[in-house]
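User: Reviewer 2 asked us to show a designed sequence for the structure in our supplementary figure. I'm pasting the structure tokens here. Could you produce the per-position amino acids so we can include them in the response letter?
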């Protein structure tokens, strides 16, 4: 669930960046309106889509990785699962509290609005209701109702009514209520508020554009600048005057109509959405074809490194890497690797010392293992897992630690069959040192081979156990 939420936020950010860079300064206001309404929904849906034709471009042989080691019996494993379930329940409770607060704030705004309506004089007009507020300079609309302060001059009321009537006709309040619902559900996501702000600005542009077809621009400018109207601090109403918007509205009114060819900018959605589909399709593969035993969340922590490994394997499968490509890939690995975890090294001739596990012609062989390449892969996995379970001393954990402990180890079996370059990440240094000790003590193996030469192979290994409180 957390991974899904992060993807939603990331996709919304990409959509908003595309909007700010390419679209918001254009005069295709109605198209921009549909963009702002549609992309949040697309952000919710895209993480749930996994296109098999895209996923199949990455052969399943490249997804081989060491399963997570679970230290303890079946009861302990169930305890780990229960720990995660408990954690998710706590997060769900936290979300419910936040959503309840957001809902209460929304209700308070509605009550404030209805109270304001009850204090005014309501008149039925053609297609809308007009509420006159005594001793006020307020001017805004909500749904089919326009609110006007009695202290606004009759001359200014003409421009305001024309403007607010466009909000009423366009059902603009429904757009803002739509974002209010998103804000209640995703109250923790600041981009929900950004989306609503962009929509409010856009709606002012739409209404202004309609009004100047009825009223002269000069007269409308004077109406905008002549008086500062009061506004209610309610996020889902359309206010006629807003300090932060007035300058933008005037600038937009002065802009020439965008040429039709500029609509090609909307084609930026094609590579953007396709890139998202590639990500969701490929990242979903590891969850479908993942570990033989429960990985208890380790997948998300090592997913970036695994994707880099798969990319390396794919490139190597199709013709190898140039020296420049190797250096670039290594630099990217350094930037994205978890702290304390090693990355592929290079020798003095800029050649890979590690060969991807899915591409290597003959994988390293654990003592006593035999058979085909696939059988050797399975055998080394089982033996390494068994070795770690047998030799890892959970008693090294300090007394202050309790609950689920997750350790991530990376190592390589070098060209001599020795385990080397062992790195680990753990919640405490004692657990990290013990993981390095155990993995470093793995027996000497028969090195992997590629094109008749002994080569090194890089491995990653999650280790999970629970400390009873």
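Assistant: Here is a per-position design you can include in the supplement:
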């Amino acid at each position: 669930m957390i991974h899904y939420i992060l993807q939603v936020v990331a996709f919304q950010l990409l959509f908003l960046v595309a909007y700010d860079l390419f679209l918001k300064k254009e005069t295709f206001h109605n198209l921009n309106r549909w963009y702002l309404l549609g992309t949040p929904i697309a952000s919710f849906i895209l993480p749930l889509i996994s296109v098999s034709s895209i996923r199949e471009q990455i052969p399943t042989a490249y997804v081989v990785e060491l399963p997570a080691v679970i230290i303890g019996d079946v009861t302990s494993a169930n305890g780990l699962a229960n720990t995660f379930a408990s954690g998710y329940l706590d997060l769900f409770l936290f979300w419910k509290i936040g959503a309840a607060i957001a809902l209460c704030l929304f209700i308070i705004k509605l009550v404030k609005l209805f109270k304001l309506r009850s204090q005014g004089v309501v008149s039925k007009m053609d297609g809308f209701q007009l509420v006159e507020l005594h001793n006020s300079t307020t001017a805004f609309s909500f749904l089919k109702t326009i609110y006007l302060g009695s202290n606004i001059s009759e001359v200014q009321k003409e421009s305001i009514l024309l403007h607010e009537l466009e909000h009423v006709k366009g059902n603009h309040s429904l757009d803002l209520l739509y974002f209010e619902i998103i804000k209640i559900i995703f109250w923790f996501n600041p981009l929900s508020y950004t989306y609503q702000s962009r929509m409010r600005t856009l709606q002012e542009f739409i209404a202004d554009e309609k009004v100047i077809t009825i009223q002269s621009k000069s007269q409308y400018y004077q109406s905008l600048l002549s008086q500062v109207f009061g506004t209610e601090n309610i996020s889902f109403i359309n206010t006629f005057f807003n300090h932060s918007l007035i300058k933008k509205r005037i600038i937009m009114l002065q802009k020439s109509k965008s040429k039709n060819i500029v609509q090609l900018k909307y084609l930026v959605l094609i590579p953007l959405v396709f890139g998202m589909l590639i990500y969701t399709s490929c990242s979903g593969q590891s969850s479908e074809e993942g570990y033989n035993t429960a990985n208890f969340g380790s997948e998300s922590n090592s997913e970036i490194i695994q994707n880099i490994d798969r990319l390396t394997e794919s490139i190597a499968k199709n013709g190898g890497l140039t020296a420049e490509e190797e250096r670039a890939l290594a630099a990217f690995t350094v930037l994205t690797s978890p702290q304390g975890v090693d990355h592929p090294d290079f020798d003095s001739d800029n050649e890979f010392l590690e060969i991807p596990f899915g591409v290597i012609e003959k994988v390293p062989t654990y003592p006593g293992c035999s058979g085909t390449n696939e059988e050797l892969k399975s055998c080394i996995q089982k033996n390494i897992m068994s070795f770690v379970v047998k030799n890892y001393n959970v008693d090294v954990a300090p007394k202050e630690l309790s609950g689920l402990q997750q350790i991530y180890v990376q190592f390589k079996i070098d060209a001599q069959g020795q385990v080397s370059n062992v790195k680990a990440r753990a919640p405490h240094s004692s657990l990290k040192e013990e993981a390095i000790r155990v993995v470093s003590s793995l027996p000497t193996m028969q090195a992997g081979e590629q094109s008749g030469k002994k080569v090194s192979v890089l491995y990653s290994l999650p280790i999970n156990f629970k400390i009873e409180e």
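For the response letter, you might also mention the following. The first strand starts at residue 69 and ends at 70. The longest helix spans residues 74-119.
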